[in-house]
Task: inverse folding
């Protein structure tokens, strides 16, 4: 009986190992579209993207492409989502596969957050520079404070070339041209290593002593004070003074090396120009709308009044970045 139990235990362990290994090696390609994960009310009642244009389908590393179009800030914005008073025009991509070289709303450069008005339509443009080769799904996106990222439609864009050739040169206020992609990277690695090393040394010092259970026993026995020796106090003081000294000295030398700096740029852009949409000649009044879950069918009754001087045909229902077309009209 004992042998059988051991065998079962052994086999279960092997099975577990195989499962874990299989799970580790099972990495399906992520091909889901972010907008589908968004709640229906977010997609239907927040930002409506339309007339979108991706200037290229294939772009070499270091080349640029633009995404332009319009978005309507829905008048029936949900009560549960904060109003888009602090919003940031963004791009939904899997990491920094592009860099954003510039973005504009209503012709104004918007490197920071903007205030948007409900019921208004805005024109936008985003200039992207290709960085990492691959097939990427590039979405429009609006980050709304208190509302989260609101993702718009996406399109596949292929970046060709090699990432090693990517450069991101900028000219500083002092007229020096630097490549932001590699600027001072050695310094970054150096300081990470220094602080990591100091942290490890601090841990190693205390880990030489009895830990956990012996310490607990000593504390319980009322001998907590005996755990920290005068040497420990000196070492701890040395760490504290040393850390402060390193920071003070390097701060002084950095200030000396870079005397000209600008304050961090932050703020909110208001008064963004919206576009005048043509006055609609067609009036639509929704009388009733029901959604039948089992058949995933939407039924609407509406009264449509044509105030224009030419006949119209109803051919499309557009919501949440999805177009439902009447095949007979489209
Ligand atoms: Cu996508």
Result:
């Amino acid at each position: 009986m004992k042998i059988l139990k051991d065998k079962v235990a052994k086999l279960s362990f092997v099975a577990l190992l195989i499962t874990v290994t299989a799970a580790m090696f099972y990495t399906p390609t992520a091909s889901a579209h972010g907008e589908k994960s968004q709640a229906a009310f977010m997609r239907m009642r927040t930002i409506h993207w339309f007339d979108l244009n991706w200037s290229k389908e294939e772009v070499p590393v270091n080349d640029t492409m633009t995404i332009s179009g319009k978005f309507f800030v829905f008048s029936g914005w949900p009560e549960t989502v904060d109003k888009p008073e602090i919003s940031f025009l963004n791009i939904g991509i899997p990491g920094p596969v592009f860099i954003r070289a510039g973005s504009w709303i209503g012709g104004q450069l918007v490197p920071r957050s903007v205030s948007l008005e409900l019921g208004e339509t805005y024109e936008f443009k985003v200039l992207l520079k290709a960085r990492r080769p691959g097939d990427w799904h590039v979405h429009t996106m609006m980050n709304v404070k208190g509302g989260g990222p609101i993702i718009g439609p996406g399109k596949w864009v292929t970046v060709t070339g090699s990432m090693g050739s990517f450069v991101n040169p900028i000219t500083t206020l002092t007229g020096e041209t630097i490549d932001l992609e590699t600027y001072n990277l050695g310094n970054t690695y150096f300081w990470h290593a220094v602080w990591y090393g100091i942290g490890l040394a601090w841990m190693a010092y205390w880990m030489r002593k009895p830990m956990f259970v012996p310490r607990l026993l000593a504390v319980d026995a009322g001998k907590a004070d005996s755990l920290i020796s005068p040497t420990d106090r000196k070492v701890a003081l040395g760490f504290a003074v040393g850390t402060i000294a390193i920071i003070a000295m390097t701060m002084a030398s950095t200030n000396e090396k870079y005397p000209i700096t600008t304050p961090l740029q932050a703020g909110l852009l208001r008064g963004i120009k919206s576009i005048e949409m043509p006055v609609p000649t067609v009036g639509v009044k929704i009388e009733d709308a029901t959604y039948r879950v089992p058949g995933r069918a939407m039924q609407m009754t509406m009264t449509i009044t044509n105030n224009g001087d030419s006949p119209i045909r109803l051919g499309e229902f557009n919501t949440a970045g999805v177009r439902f077309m009447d095949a007979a009209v489209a």
About this structure: The pocket of copper (II) ion is lined by residues 33-34, 137, 139, 154 (CB under 6 Å).
